[in-house]
């Protein structure tokens, strides 16, 4: 076969172009790679701007501190008298009511003291009755002495009259005897004897009157003494009554009761222990709590009672709590320290002071969480000041 008669060669099939190397797709990929970084940068920038704006707005409207904690009434229940513990009726974490018995001391020695005080009171009252009887006797004696004075006065008046009559009779008889012997010597002697007897009777009655008047003074003095004895006996009765009340108080203190409703913690007593007066036996935490937040002095210019507060408790991160500013302390915390700093000595370094702020929780939050709000828990507070 001639080359001229050979058929033309068949055309070769086109080699397919890979999609990754397709010109249009490659251009689109290049455009995407060109713009995704700026777009991502814009998104991140907007997020940062939004976050910064949120922070700035929050900083403008709120004052925040994490130097805050929950506090409340925590009673140190202590023994009021010394004695041996007989029974302990509660344990740690028990809920108690106000007035509930927590422990009892051995009451025997206090009962004996109360009985002694009762006996002393009875004795003092008996002495008071005796003193009142003495006063009555003294009053009677004074009345009798006054009656004697009256009687002696009457007798003196009588003898005075008799003396006067005897004097006149003697003078008349002497005149009659000297003027002619109208009377006998015996009559004159009788007149003289009667006058002397009247004088003696007068002197005796004057002595009786003086004695009666002295008896009145003595009776008055005895009445004064008896009245003083009454007052002394009344003082003894009052002292005995006070001693009885004190003995009863000590007997009552042998029973240790809860001063308020709450929960027992830190029990430090067991039956058989010998406790002293003032020794702490239990700690009792009441259910009502509040927050003390220590703010820097530079955070206080716009803070005042009544402002709303957002609260986060570290132990309860899933609960958003709210409250209200109740009051601000009258001085910084350093002023209430046991040893306040004295900036007038040595080198001075200025330190930003903190002022305690009392924040009360919403009643609903307290009702909802109850005992989970424990004194001492750390919190973060945000006070809205604008």
Strand content is 15-25%
Helix tally equals: 4
Instruction: Provide the residue-averaged pLDDT.
Output: 83
The profile of the biggest β sheet is: 6 strands, antiparallel, barrel
Which strand order do you get reading across the main beta sheet? 1-8-11-10-9-12
Radius of gyration: 56 Å
Helicity level: 40-55%
Shape: rod-shaped
Report the count of strand segments. Answer: 12
Structural class: alpha+beta
Strand/helix succession: HEEEEHHEEEEEEEHE
Regions with little confidence, pLDDT below 50 for 5+ residues: none
First-to-last CA distance: 107 Å
Protein name: HlyD family secretion protein
Biased composition (Pro residues): 1-11
Domain CusB-like beta-barrel: 289-332
Main location: other
Describe what this molecule looks like in 3D.
The protein is an alpha+beta fold and 386 residues long. Helix content is 48%, strand content 23%. The chain is built from four helices and twelve strands; from the N terminus they run H-E-E-E-E-H-H-E-E-E-E-E-E-E-H-E. The strands form two sheets. The chain has a six-stranded antiparallel beta barrel with strand order 1-8-11-10-9-12. The protein has a four-stranded antiparallel beta sheet with strand order 5-4-2-7. Strand 9 and strand 10 form a beta hairpin. It is rod-shaped, with a radius of gyration of 56 Å. The mean pLDDT is 83.
């Amino acid at each position: 076969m001639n080359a001229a008669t050979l058929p033309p060669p068949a055309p070769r099939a086109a080699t397919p172009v890979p999609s990754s190397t397709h010109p249009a797709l490659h251009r689109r990929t290049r455009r995407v790679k060109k713009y995704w970084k700026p777009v991502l940068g814009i998104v991140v920038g907007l997020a940062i701007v939004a976050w910064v704006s949120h922070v700035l707005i929050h900083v403008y409207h709120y004052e925040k501190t994490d130097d805050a904690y929950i506090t409340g009434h925590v009673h140190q229940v202590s023994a009021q008298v010394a004695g041996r513990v007989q029974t302990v009726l509660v344990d740690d974490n028990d809920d108690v009511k106000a007035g509930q018995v927590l422990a009892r001391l051995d009451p025997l020695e206090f009962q004996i003291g109360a009985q002694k005080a009762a006996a002393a009171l009875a004795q003092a009252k008996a002495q008071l009755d005796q003193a009142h009887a003495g006063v009555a006797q003294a009053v009677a004696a004074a009345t009798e002495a006054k009656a004697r004075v009256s009687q002696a006065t009457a007798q003196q008046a009588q003898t005075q009259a008799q003396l006067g009559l005897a004097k006149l009779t003697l003078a008349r008889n002497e005149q009659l005897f000297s003027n002619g012997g109208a009377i006998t010597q015996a009559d004159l002697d009788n007149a003289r004897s009667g006058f002397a007897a009247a004088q003696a009777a007068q002197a005796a009655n004057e002595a009786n009157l003086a004695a009666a008047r002295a008896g009145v003074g003595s009776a008055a003095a005895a009445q004064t003494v008896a009245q003083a004895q009454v007052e002394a006996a009344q003082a003894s009765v009052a002292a005995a009554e006070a001693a009885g009340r004190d003995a009863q108080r000590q007997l009552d203190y042998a029973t240790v009761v809860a001063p308020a409703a709450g929960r027992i913690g830190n029990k430090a007593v067991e039956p058989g222990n010998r406790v002293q007066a003032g020794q702490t036996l239990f700690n009792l935490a009441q259910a009502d709590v509040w927050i003390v937040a220590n703010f820097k002095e530079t955070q206080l210019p716009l803070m005042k009672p009544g402002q709303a507060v957002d609260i986060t408790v570290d132990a309860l991160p899933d609960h958003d709590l709210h409250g209200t500013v109740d009051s601000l302390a009258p001085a910084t915390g350093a002023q209430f320290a046991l040893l306040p700093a004295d900036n007038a000595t040595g080198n001075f370094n200025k330190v930003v002071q903190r002022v305690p702020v009392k924040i009360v929780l919403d009643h609903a939050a307290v009702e909802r969480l109850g005992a989970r709000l424990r004194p001492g828990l750390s919190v973060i507070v945000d006070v809205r000041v604008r």
